[in-house]
Each structure stands twice: as C-alpha cells, then as structure tokens.
C-alpha cells in the first residue's frame, strides 16, 4: 500500500505537471491518431472550445478591482512593442543567424508577424495563475492592433502585402472573448456562489480545452508533420525555441522591473506576449503562400508545438515554486 502522505505528494506532482502531460499527449495523439479531415471540416470544434475557456474566465473575473486603467494602458503599449514590433524583427534576424532556407524562413517570420494567440495564450495564462483581467485586456488590445500591424509586418519583413480583414478579427474578438466573458459575468451576478462551487472545474476545464485545441491543430496537419525530416526539424526548432524563450524572458524582465507588475499580472503579461497562433498563421499561409512556398508550413507547426511544450514545462515549474512557497 502507498502511504497516504506519499499518495498525496504524487497527486500534487501530477497536478503541477498536468498541463505539460496533457499537451504532450495531445501532440502525440494528433500526429499518431488524427481526427479525420471529413470530421474536421464538418464540425467547427475550435470556436466552442475557445469560448468555454473564456466563459470560465468570465465567471471568475471580479471587475470590482479593475481600476488600473493607467496600468493597463502601459501594459498594452509595452506588449505591443514586444509582440508587434520586436518579435517579427527578431524573427527576421534569427532566420539569418540560423541560416534558414527561404521557405522555412518565410513560415518562421510569418507566424511571428501575428501579435498573439487567441486559442492558447489565455489558457496558458490561467494555468500559470495569471491575472484574468490583465490577460483579457492585453489580448483585446493586441488583437485590435493586429488589424493594422499584421499586413504591415508582413510587408516589412516578408516583402509582400497581405490584407487582414478587420471584420474577421473583430468577429473573433466578439465571438471568442466578449460574448463568453459576458455570459460568465451574467452567471456570476445571477448565481453569486457559482464561482466558488465551480472553482475546481474552472481549473481543469481550460486544460482539457487547450489539449483538445492542440490535438485538433495537430490532426489537421498530421500528414505534413509526418513529412518533416529530422534534420529540418532540429534546424527549425532551435531558432523557434530560442526566439520564444528570449521574448518570454524579456517580457518577464519588462513586467517585473519596468512595469513593476504584481506576480499574477506579470504571468499573464509574459504568456500573452510570447504565444503565437497556429490556426491564423496556417490559414493565411494556405491562401497566400501554399502554392509557391509549400514547406513554409513546417516552421509554423514547429514553432507552435515547441511553444506549447516549453510553456507547459515552465508553468509546471512555476506551480512547483508556488507549492514550495506555501509550505
């Protein structure tokens, strides 16, 4: 028999590493046992999964403490400098330093031209015990900036002009963020005790939703992922991982020492800033570069999978440190 104390310790260890395990399993399952393309095209799984993540956050948001308008403005400005201006410029530099081939360089820079990820960043932020309101304010701010910055960055760093529909971005913000959060806030007002009663559920549901999103993303591109050669995979992974970690660490330093953010706000800041979207990048690639640059999708997939694993590992270490500090 395993002693009760030892069993409890094992459960604590599993809980701290649950996100890392779930994401790793989702990647492996998506590549090895992908959902059929017919099923993926027949049903829109992404929207409800993302909506559930934000609904859970809306239920647990307490806007009575949201009186830091000046702080939020500073966060958005700093976030835009890092995610919108610095990220693609650094990607262009990294592509040259690591001597990426033309197609690989294009895909690598392309994903970095997007300001943030709507699908994964919020779930990562919440699993890191980040501040919900800070995360949402930053997500919305960067997404709106992206209407102008995405085509501009593509023009500057890739050399071609691709128009990003403002209506599509606004529709995603309303559908993915505002409506679910509003529903969550309404539930909070009608049922004041609901946040406390669903605290455990609100913790685990975003993990499940994020794992499901990763599985769906890998399922869609399973055939392409299987075609990756080990040499190209390793050669592409290093600039992707290096850039992601560099921006994440820079965001940590900026949030802590320049913006002087509390720990929860800073955790939201670093993950919202450093996460890049796979779905939007692949969608844009498929209608613009797929014919002339077919292998440009490889670095997009490598970057996305790499950031999922890296951030999941970092969050597991954060949870371990939080646990040790509470003892």
UniProtKB/TrEMBL annotation:
Transmembrane segments: 18-35, 41-59, 71-92, 104-124, 136-158, 164-187, 199-216, 236-255, 267-291, 297-315
A Pfam family it matches: SBF_like
Matches recorded under Gene3D superfamilies: 1.20.1530.20
Coiled-coil blocks: none
Keyword Transmembrane helix carried by entry: yes
Keyword vocabulary terms for this entry: Membrane, Transmembrane, Transmembrane helix
Protein name listed in UniProt: Solute carrier family 10 (Sodium/bile acid cotransporter), member 7
Originating organism: Halodesulfovibrio marinisediminis DSM 17456
């Amino acid at each position: 028999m395993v002693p009760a104390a030892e069993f409890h310790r094992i459960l604590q260890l599993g809980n701290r590493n649950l996100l890392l395990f779930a994401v790793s399993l989702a990647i492996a399952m998506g590549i090895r046992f992908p959902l059929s393309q017919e099923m993926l095209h027949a049903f829109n799984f992404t929207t409800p999964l993302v909506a559930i993540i934000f609904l859970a956050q809306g239920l647990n948001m307490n806007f009575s403490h949201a009186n830091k308008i000046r702080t939020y403005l500073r966060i958005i400005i700093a976030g835009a400098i890092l995610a919108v201006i610095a990220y693609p410029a650094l990607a262009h530099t990294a592509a040259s330093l690591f001597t990426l081939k033309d197609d690989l360089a294009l895909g690598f820079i392309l994903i970095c031209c997007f300001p943030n990820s709507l699908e994964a960043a919020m779930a990562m932020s919440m699993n890191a015990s980040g501040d919900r309101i800070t995360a949402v304010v930053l997500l919305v701010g960067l997404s709106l900036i992206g209407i102008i910055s995405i085509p501009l960055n593509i023009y500057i760093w890739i050399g071609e002009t691709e128009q990003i529909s403002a209506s599509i971005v606004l529709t995603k913000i309303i559908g993915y963020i505002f409506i679910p959060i509003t529903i969550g806030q309404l539930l909070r007002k009608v049922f004041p005790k609901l946040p406390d009663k669903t605290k455990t559920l609100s913790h685990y549901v975003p993990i499940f939703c994020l794992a499901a999103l990763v599985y769906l993303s890998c399922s869609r591109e399973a055939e392409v992922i299987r075609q990756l050669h080990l040499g190209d995979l390793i050669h592409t992974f290093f600039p992707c991982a290096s850039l992601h970690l560099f921006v994440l660490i820079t965001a940590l330093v900026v949030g802590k020492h320049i913006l002087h953010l509390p720990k929860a706000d800073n955790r939201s800041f670093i993950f919202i800033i450093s996460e890049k979207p796979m779905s939007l990048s692949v969608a844009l690639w498929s209608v613009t570069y797929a014919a002339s640059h077919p292998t440009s999708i490889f670095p997009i997939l490598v970057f996305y999978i790499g950031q999922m694993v890296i951030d999941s590992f970092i969050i597991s270490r954060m949870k371990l440190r939080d646990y040790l500090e509470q003892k």
